[in-house]
Amino acid sequence: MKLKYFSHSAFQITTNEGKVILIDPYITGNPTSPVKVEDVHADYIVLTHGHGDHLGDAMTIAERDNCLIIAVNELADYIAAKGYNAHNMHIGGGYNFEFGRVKFTIAHHGSKTPDGEYVGEPAGVILSIDGKNIYHCGDTGLFYDMKLIGEMTPIDYMLLPIGDNFTMGIDDAVKAVELTNPKVAIPIHYNTFPVINADPNEFKQKVEALGKKSIVLKYGEEIEI
Ligand code: NI
Ligand code: MN
Predict the structure, then answer these.
(1) What does the pLDDT read at residue 205?
(2) Quick check: is 219 in a domain?
(3) What is the pLDDT at residue 203?
(4) 223 occurs within a structural domain
(5) CA 116 to ligand 2 centroid distance, Å
């Protein structure tokens, strides 16, 4: 399986069978995106919440590729009302899709769309694909239940925000890694805008000081996982 980082919270997963899953595809208007929306294709899109920097180009891509958008109930209803295919889920629930399992977790944040609609609770998401568990935390502050999340689902790759202001900053994110105990921690949601400037290498060093592994992905970098 391949994991590609587009910057901010946006990722592309390509499964061993060649299915493409996007997470929070914020490309247009993202000053750090290395790609244009025309270059990105999807079979599935997973959304953590409705903020513009996460909903991103989801509906543009869905319009073009006819992909399925997976989100918590209120956000999925919003997307379905706009005419796109959506699969409604909610926090604590998992579902086995053709490509693997998706389970939503809590996240402490907000969830309003760019056109002003509140679309339920924000979420994190655990994707279990090709024998690996990937936990994308979405936007969230630190919470102690990350320990429970890691106990219930041993996490291989934890993708977690470090940019502060709207989410965890570096020190809270390091604590999140300690609680969740993933094999690898990947920092996200930083340096997209000045207000969330953070040094990913400081995060990496602090995670390594715990005896844990961290990888700082470059914008557009793809790794085999
Ligand atoms: Ni947000
Ligand atoms: Mn955000």
Answers:
(1) 98
(2) no
(3) 99
(4) no
(5) 15
pLDDT in tens, 73-119: 999 999 999 999 999 999 999 999 999 999 999 999 999 999 999 99
Q: In angstroms, what is the span from residue 51 Cα to ligand 1's centroid?
A: 5
CB 48 within 8 A of CB 123: yes
Total tally of structural domains belonging to the chain: 1
Among all bound ligands, the one having the nearest atom to the CA of 50 is: 1
- By the 10 Å C-beta count (0-12 exposed, 13-18 middle, 19+ buried), 193 is classed as middle
- Residue 176 counted as domain residue: yes
Question: Which ligand minimizes its atom distance to the CA of 196?
Answer: 2
Distance 117 CA to ligand 2 centre (A): 16
Backbone dihedral angles phi then psi of residue 140, each to the nearest 5 degrees: -160, 155
pTM beyond cutoff 0.85: yes
Q: Could you tell me whether strands 100-106 and 94-97 are parallel, antiparallel, or unpaired per DSSP bridges?
A: antiparallel
The ligand minimizing its distance to the Cα of 164 is 2
- Tell how far the Cα of 50 is from the centroid of ligand 2, in angstroms: 9
Return the CATH number at 92.
3.60.15.10
Domain range for 34 is: 2-211
Distance 159 CA to ligand 1 centre (A): 15
Give the closest ligand to the alpha carbon of residue 189: 2
- Read off the tokens for 185: 């921690």
Q: Using 50, 70 and 90 to split pLDDT, how confident is the model at 51?
A: very high
pLDDT, residue 174, reads 98
State the ligand closest to the CA atom of 108: 1
Starting at the earlier edge strand, list the strands of the sheet with 184-188. 94-97, 100-106, 123-129, 132-136, 157-161, 184-188, 213-214
pLDDT in tens, 173-204: 999 999 999 999 999 999 999 999 999 999 99
In a domain, 47, yes or no: yes
